[in-house]
Design brief:
It holds the Pfam family Sugar_tr. This is Sugar transport protein 2. By secondary structure, the protein is mainly alpha-helical. The longest helix has 30 residues, at 409-438. The chain has helices at residues 13-40, 43-49, 51-58, 71-97, 100-119, 124-152, 158-183, 190-196, 199-211, 216-221, 225-236, 242-256, 261-265, 271-286, 289-302, 307-335, 337-362, 371-389, 392-403, 409-438, 441-460, 472-477. The protein has one domain: Growth Hormone, Chain: A, CATH 1.20.1250.20.
Length: 487
C-alpha cells in the first residue's frame, strides 16, 4: 500500500462507537443463527409446536440420523432467510434513496417486532410470521451494515473494520448458545426467553442508529455535499479531508450518470464483482458452516451427547468461532484476503473429511459414538469452525462490499445478500433431511464443495488488500489474468 492510498485520519472515540453500534446488526444476525438450533432441540418447544418430532426423538431405537427430519421444523429456521432474501432488495433501494443510517434504524425495528411476536407465539402461524419479521430485519441489516462499515473505514483499516460485522455475528452465535444452555433448564417457557432475548441486540442497534452519522458517500450520493464533507471530517477526526472527499464526490457524480443500475450491472465491466460476490455467498454456505451452527445441539445429540452436553458443546464451538474471528481482524490487512481463504480451505477440508470418516465407520442408525470419538468429533468441528471464522465467514461479506463501484454498490451488494439468504435457507431447509438420507456422507458432500472453493480462490479471486474502492477497476479487475479480458 502506498502512502497516497492512506486516509488522513485519526481513530477517535466517536468513529469507534459508530463501528461498534453498526456491528450490532451482525450480532442480531448471529444471535438468530445460534438460537434456532438450540430452540429446535428443546423438548418444551417441540411438544408445543412439533409433537410428532418430539415423539420420534424420544423413541429409543429411532434412526440416529432421522429423528429431527421434519420439513415444518426446518421451515422454522429457513423462513427467516427466505424473507431476508426478498427484503434485501427493498433494503438496497432504501439505502440508496434514504441513506444507510435510516435503513439501519428500520432493520432494528423489524427485528424487535420479530422477537416480540416469536416470544409470544401460541401457534405455528405466529411463530412463522415472527420469523418473517426477523428475516426482514436481517435482510435490511445485512444489506446495510457491511456497506456502512466499508464506507466509513479508513483504507488502511478497511478489512479489519468490516470484519467487525462478522465478529459480532460470531459473538451473537456464542451468546445464543449460552442463552439456550440456560433456558433449556427453564420449563415450560425457556424457548420464549431465548427467542424474546433477540430484541436486546436490536435495541442497541436502534439506539445506535441515532448516534451514528450517515456515510459521506451516501450523503454525497443524495446531493448533500456539505453534510457529506462534515460527516467525513467527523469520522476521520481531522479537518483536512479535501483529497478524499473530492474522490468520493467524483465517484458519486459518475454514478449519477447511471439511470438504470440493473442494466449497468449486466455490462461486461460489472460481471467480475457480481460473479465474485454471488459465488462467495454460495461457497460460504456450502462449506457446511450453517449446517453446523444452526443445528450444532441437534448434531451433537445425534452423536450421542445428552441434551445439556450437546448445548455445552455448541457453546464451546461458539467460543472458538468468536476467538478465531479476531485472527482475521489482525491478519486481513497484513497478509491479504486470498491467503486466508486458501489456508482455510485446506484446514476445513481435512476437518470435514475426518468427521465424515469417523461417523461413517462408527455411528450406525442406532447407538452412539464412544466418548473418545465423540470428543474427537467436537475437536474436529472446532478446527473447522476456527478456519471458517478467519476466512470465508468474514471475507464473504468484506470482499463484495469493497469491489463494486458506487453506481452499482447497493444493488450489487443486494444480490450478494439475497444469494447468501437463499442458500442459507436452502441449507437450513435441507440439512436435517440430508443428514437422514446421506448420513455421514453429508460431510463428504460439503468437503467436495470446499475443494472447488479452493480452486475458485486460486484462479478467479483478485487480491483487494490496500486498494482504494474507487481504484478497484484499474488495480484489481484490469490486472487480473481472467477478468481483464472483459475490460
Amino acid at each position: 500500500m502506498t502512502s497516497g492510498d492512506m486516509n488522513n485520519s485519526k481513530i477517535t472515540i466517536y468513529v469507534v462507537s459508530c463501528w461498534i453500534f453498526a456491528a450490532f446488526g451482525g450480532l442480531m444476525f448471529g444471535y438468530d443463527i445460534g438460537i434456532s438450533g438450540g430452540v429446535s432441540g428443546m423438548d418444551d418447544f417441540l411438544i408445543k409446536f412439533f409433537p410428532k418430532v418430539y415423539e420420534r426423538k424420544k423413541t429409543a431405537k429411532e434412526n440416529n440420523y432421522c429423528k429431527y427430519d421434519d420439513q415444518l421444523l426446518q421451515l422454522f429456521t429457513s423462513s427467516l432467510y427466505l424473507s431476508a432474501l426478498v427484503a434485501s432488495f427493498f433494503a438496497s433501494k432504501a439505502a440508496t434513496k434514504l441513506g444507510r443510517k435510516p435503513t439501519i434504524f428500520m432493520a432494528s425495528v423489524f427485528f424487535i417486532g420479530g422477537a416480540v411476536l416469536s416470544a409470544a407465539a401460541n401457534n405455528k402461524l405466529m411463530l412463522i410470521f415472527g420469523r418473517i419479521l426477523f428475516g426482514i430485519g436481517v435482510g435490511f441489516g445485512n444489506e446495510t451494515v457491511p456497506l456502512f462499515l466499508t464506507e466509513v473505514a479508513p483504507i488502511q483499516h478497511r478489512g479489519a473494520v468490516n470484519i467487525l460485522f462478522q465478529l459480532f455475528v460470531t459473538i451473537g452465535i456464542f451468546i445464543a448458545n449460552l442463552v439456550n444452555y440456560a433456558t433449556s433448564m427453564i420449563h415450560p417457557n425457556g424457548w420464549r426467553v431465548s427467542l424474546g432475548f433477540a430484541a436486546a441486540p436490536a435495541i442497541v442497534l436502534l439506539i445506535g442508529s441515532f448516534v451514528i452519522t450517515d456515510t459521506p458517500t451516501s450523503l454525497a450520493e443524495r446531493g448533500k455535499v456539505e453534510q457529506g464533507k462534515a460527516a467525513l471530517k467527523k469520522i476521520r477526526g481531522v479537518s483536512d479531508v479535501e483529497a478524499e472527499y473530492k474522490e468520493i464526490v467524483a465517484a458519486c457524480e459518475q454514478a449519477k450518470q447511471v439511470k438504470h443500475p440493473f442494466r449497468n450491472l449486466a455490462k461486461a465491466a460489472s460481471i467480475p464483482p457480481l460473479v465474485i460476490a454471488i459465488l462467495l455467498q454460495i461457497f460460504q454456505q456450502f462449506t457446511g458452516i450453517n449446517a453446523i451452527m444452526f443445528y450444532a445441539p441437534v448434531l451433537f445429540q445425534t452423536m450421542g451427547f445428552k441434551s445439556d452436553g450437546s448445548l455445552l458443546s455448541a457453546v464451546i464451538t461458539g467460543l472458538v468461532n468468536v476467538g478465531s474471528t479476531f485472527v482475521s481482524i489482525y491478519l486481513v490487512d497484513k497478509v491479504g484476503r486470498r491467503k486466508l481463504l486458501l489456508q482455510a480451505c485446506c484446514q476445513m477440508l481435512i476437518s470435514q473429511v475426518a468427521i465424515g470418516i469417523i461417523l461413517a465407520k462408527s455411528l450406525g442408525e442406532t447407538g452412539t459414538l464412544n466418548k473418545t470419538l465423540a470428543i474427537v468429533v467436537v475437536l474436529l468441528v472446532c478446527t473447522f469452525v476456527m478456519a471458517f471464522a478467519w476466512s470465508w465467514g468474514p471475507l464473504g461479506w468484506l470482499i463484495p462490499s469493497e469491489t463494486f463501484p458506487i453506481e452499482t454498490r447497493t444493488l450489487g451488494f443486494a444480490f450478494a445478500v439475497s444469494t447468501n439468504m437463499l442458500f442459507t435457507a436452502l441449507i437450513a431447509q435441507a440439512f436435517l433431511t440430508m443428514l437422514c438420507t446421506m448420513r455421514a456422507y453429508t460431510f463428504f458432500f460439503f468437503s467436495a464443495w470446499i475443494f472447488v472453493m479452493g480452486l475458485f480462490a486460486i484462479f478467479f479471486l483478485p487480491e483487494t488488500k490496500g486498494i482504494p474502492i474507487e481504484a478497484m477497476v484499474e488495480r484489481a479487475w484490469k490486472k487480473h489474468p481472467v477478468w481483464k479480458k472483459l475490460f
